[in-house]
Design brief:
Blueprint: E1 2-12, E2 15-26, E3 29-34, H1 41-48, E4 56-63, E5 66-68, E6 77-80, H2 92-102, H3 108-118, H4 134-146, E7 152-156, H5 164-180, E8 182-186, H6 190-193, E9 198-201
Parallel strand pairs: 3-8, 3-9, 6-7, 7-8
Antiparallel strand pairs: 1-2, 1-4, 4-5
Helix pairs in contact: 2-3, 3-4
Length: 204
């Protein structure tokens, strides 16, 4: 399993945001993007997840010696970010159950309860998400991302809005993903960066 990125460029309204971003990462590795606020870290993650298009450059993801087309990245990638929305009127379990059905995930109910417990929301599994704090919503987003057992897990500011217990749980998730598959995250937090095998500076 490998993700190879070559010469990614992106501009908005004539202003260069990303300039010649290149890297390669394989299964069992982690990589972090760092850079000042507004440097383009979030834009880069969205491009890699095929949620936005680059102006120039190439993104090649391969698994079992087969190249995966960008339109199928969603079947292999998951993303956690502060800008992702949850279904506020539904409970945590209902949110995950809906996603499991949408992605045809087997044993979705069992996986949902297991992940809710893993991220520390067991006691609030049946409460509407609109009653959650920002930190609890962040925990639920991790359960969302892990439900499909992604080959590549992207995290944008992985520990934002989390208390100490939440941060420890996220670090455990990051370590597990790094060991078994591919982990890519954007952060300026020095403690987060300790989990990165590679660091890519993102500055236009």
């Amino acid at each position: 399993m490998k993700l190879a990125v070559q010469g990614i460029q992106k501009s908005f309204s004539g202003k260069r945001i990303l300039k010649d971003i290149s890297f390669e990462i394989s299964q069992g590795q982690s990589l972090a993007f760092t850079g000042h606020n507004g440097s383009g870290k979030t834009t880069l993650i969205r491009i890699l997840c095929a949620l936005s298009r680059q102006d120039k450059g190439e993104i090649v993801f391969s698994k079992n010696d087969k190249t995966i087309k960008p339109e199928f990245f969603k079947d292999h990638f998951s993303l956690v970010g502060p800008y992702l929305q949850l279904y506020e009127e539904l409970t945590a379990f209902e949110n995950l159950k809906f996603l499991a059905r949408l992605k045809s995930i087997k044993n979705g109910d069992d996986s949902a309860f297991s992940l809710i417990n893993q991220v520390g929301l067991k006691g609030r599994a049946h409460d509407p998400v609109k009653t959650y704090s920002s930190g609890m919503k962040q925990r639920l987003k991790y359960a969302f991302a892990l439900l499909s057992s992604p080959d590549v897990l992207f995290l944008d500011e992985p520990t934002s809005n989390l208390d100490k217990d939440g941060i420890n749980k996220v670090y455990e998730i990051m370590k597990n993903q790094k060991q078994e598959k591919i982990l890519i995250f954007a952060t300026n937090d020095e403690n987060d960066l300790k989990l990165a095998d590679q660091v890519v500076q993102v500055d236009a």
